[in-house]
Design brief:
Layout lengths: L7 H10 L1 E3 L2 E3 L8 E7 L2 E7 L5 H12 L8 E5 L3 E4 L13 E2 L11 E4 L12 E2 L3 E4 L12 E4 L4 H4 L10 E6 L1
Antiparallel strand pairs: 1-2, 3-4, 3-12, 4-11, 5-6, 6-10, 7-9, 8-10, 8-11
């Protein structure tokens, strides 16, 4: 029996072309775009995989703000040990508001390293719309937040840096890239 290897280029071309299997057309598979957020701080770099499949409007909004340099120089104004770090306020405090909210895209769980949007309380925000700019990252699994906030990514490979962040630490540079 002979074995041969297909080159990665040939395999990719075959998968993109689609094929007919038993008379049934199988459409081509296109690898999904991956978006990554990079948050540079004095304590290290936080890298997050964004989930546009689960929260497309939130990822688009965050990417727009990041790439327009909105977050650059702003602080993590809230740090709750073992829970979350929070930033993204134009005035670097919890009352900061960018002037708009985003439709809720609730669905993903709050695992350690979850990247999610903050929002106002249900009493004034029954639709659970997300803040236009304020976000948080969880330090550990926080299941009681599930179903209440839009998680739009995960920063699981950067937990060591996330857990070092202190209140007042600046985000030197925040960008979103497609790879």
């Amino acid at each position: 029996m002979r074995y041969f290897l297909l080159s990665p280029v040939l395999v990719t071309l075959l998968s993109l072309a689609g094929c007919t299997a038993g008379g049934i057309y199988v459409p081509p598979t296109v690898p999904p775009e991956r978006r990554y957020a990079t948050i540079e701080t004095a304590r290290g770099t936080i890298r997050c995989v964004l989930r546009a499949d689960a929260a497309p409007k939130t990822v688009a909004n965050f990417g727009k703000l990041a790439n327009e340099r909105f977050y650059d120089g702003h602080t993590f104004f809230r740090v709750e040990s073992g829970l979350v770090i929070q930033g993204g306020s134009p005035n670097d405090d919890a009352s900061g508001d960018i002037g708009y909210t985003i439709e809720a895209e609730i669905g993903l769980p709050h695992y350690a390293g979850a990247l999610a949007m903050a929002r106002t309380d249900d009493s004034v925000n029954p639709e659970r719309r997300s803040s236009g700019s304020q976000f948080y990252i969880t330090m550990d699994r926080i299941s009681y937040l599930d179903g209440g906030y839009t998680v739009f990514g995960y920063c699981t490979d950067s937990l060591d840096v996330i857990r070092k962040i202190q209140q007042g630490d600046k985000m030197r540079r925040v960008r979103v890239e497609v790879q």
